[in-house]
Fold this sequence. Notes:
The complex is a heterodimer of chains A (479) and B (226).
Chain A: H1 2-8, H2 10-26, H3 33-51, H4 53-71, H5 83-132, H6 136-151, E1 155-161, E2 167-172, H7 180-189, E3 193-196, E4 202-210, E5 213-223, H8 227-292, H9 296-323, E6 331-334, H10 335-346, E7 354-357, E8 365-368, H11 370-386, E9 393-400, E10 404-410, H12 443-453, E11 457-462, E12 468-475
Chain B: E1 3-7, H1 11-23, E2 27-31, H2 34-43, E3 48-52, H3 60-70, E4 75-79, H4 84-93, E5 97-100, H5 105-120, E6 127-130, E7 133-136, E8 141-144, E9 147-149, H6 153-163, E10 169-171, H7 172-179, H8 188-202, E11 212-215, E12 219-222
Parallel strand pairs in B: 1-2, 1-3, 3-4, 4-5
Antiparallel strand pairs in B: 6-7, 7-8, 8-9, 10-12, 11-12
Helix pairs in contact in B: 1-5, 2-3, 6-8
Amino acid sequence: MTALLRRGLGYPAAALLVAVTVAVLRLFPALNESTVSLLLLLAVFLSAWIWQSGPGVLAAILATAAFNFFFLPPLYTFTIQDPRNVAALFVFLVSGLLIGRLSALSRERLRLVENERQDLVRLTRLSEAFLADTNRESLMGVAVDRLRDALQCRQVSLWLARDKGGVAEAVATPGTSVRQDLVDLAFRQGNSAEFPSELGGSDIYLPVPVGVQRAGVLVARGLRSSERMAEGCAVLLGLALERERFVKLTRAAEETKTSDQMKSTLLAALAHDLTTPVAAARGAVENWIAEAGPSEKATLALEQMKALSRRIAELMEVVRLDSGVARPRREVVTASELLEAAVSRFGQALENHSLFIEPPPADAVAEVDPGQLTEALGHGLENAAAYSPAGSAIHVGVAVDEESVLFRISDRGRGVPTSDRERAFERFVRLPTSDGVPGTGLGLSIARSLVEMNGGSLRLTDAAGGGTTFEIALPRAKR
Amino acid sequence: MSRVLVVDDEAGIRRVVRDALERAGHDVETAGDGEEALARFEQGAFDLLITDWNMPGVDGFELVRRVRKRSALPILVLTVRQEERDKVRLLDAGADDYVTKPFGVAELVARTGALLRRQSRTDQAPLARFGDVEVDRETRTVRKGEREVHLTPTEFSLLTTLLSKPGAVWTHKQLLAAVWGTTAGVTNDTLRVHMGSLRRKLEDDPDRPRYIRTEPWVGYRFSPEE
């Protein structure tokens, strides 16, 4: 208000200031011409400083005229006697105009700097307020009031993108009306719009950016701060929304982790509780055999104990896989390492077979969970041993192509008919060919889950010379 | 006769382990939990500690850490955990070996015997023998049968490190630290190459090694003769 008042009254005020100065100077006739001219220039400077350029120029012209009329002989005329005074008067006019212009300019600069400083302070306050809120509801609750203060506008309306597409008003200052077409334009095409408002100042429609996308639209009506300030607020709002989204995601991830840890602990306890009595029973039977000598019944009991503990282990593995706690921890490993590990852990099952391992190529490398792949290969080795006659050969080879590393475990058994090959991977399914072979029908299903979790695939194919090939394909990794 | 302390919260397992070890000629004491085990450990000298991992209160892991702080006593842990990283954690905390439940009694007795043998002989004796291999730590020479075998300094160092704790599992990290003095810049793969070469020089069948055994994804052990 005061600024407007000042500007409207600038011209008469500047004229008055010059008149008062002249009147005062006339009271002191002893003053010489140069003192008078300096004091008049001071009045010009003050006019320009206070009322800016226009009144400054007026003051300079009036002062020049007054200087000539009242102080340069012959007095009370606009004629000039001494030609030197013509030059003096000209210099006076130019100086007056220059001083007026310069002081008005520096004043304007100061004002702009001050405005920017205040904008920065407001933006800082706004960002502090946004950072303090990590929850969308409370963020929205305070957002419009804070934005209205920061933007010095009458009305604020905030529109946010909806999950199912489009944009909807999330929150607004009371009584705000906006133009839906401009909101849509800002949201869909990222075009901002600014035009004079009937509320005074301007109305502005700004997209709220999140990266290259848009999170919504900020509408400010009766805006008195700059467009740049409004853009700054929109960017801040976008950052606050993005941050709120990340905080939510992080929390969700932490919750999943905690629940996974709980599941994992529960499963470990369950495994312990199921395994311990079986371990004790098996040990007791072994001790019994060791002390009383082997008997048919005791040996049968021991065999059944072993089968039971194996089934418990497989069931526990299925539960672990289903519960999602068995996430792979991938490392870069060579095919040689994987095979060596599988043979050293599951080799016992192959005691009655001749195992032939072709040395894998050095560039057969995959990024997988070593323990899980060892287990999957182990199931392959055990399967080969279980479904082929004692004394027959089991061949293990590794091949590489551009994209994959292929492990093949081939036996000389009866083979699996093509029609049954996929069914063999179903849980608890035991094919007619498995007559007399102990098992749960879980091994192949577990192996496939483990391989697929690590980005690979597992299938059964024909082996050269009859029998079955257990084939694992893993994505090949760079060393 | 060796004194063995067996710690398990399950009476059934305690009984089975006690019977098996007593039959193998050891003197066995038992404890039902970690606190009791620590109290027993204070009172008497033992040659071997066998503990369950999952126990209420002071569990097997904590027991290993506490005992290892004060003693070089061999420790064998019974566990149902299958995951290698759990085993590595356990070994790095100071356990010498682990047996996964349900274990065979014969296997348990054999592992126990291997760990106890280390106690009964002076580990730093210049001469070590396994199979037809003879290792002289002083002259740094190795013979297999009649033949002298040339080992690289790294291989020799790996071999004597493994021999210094017969029966115990060395994690990759522990071996790298013991032989190279650092775990930086040396990979498990390097270790594997040296082990492979050591086996080709010393084992009768390098593909099915008898003495220098791999513990998949965990480490290596020297397994003395039964």
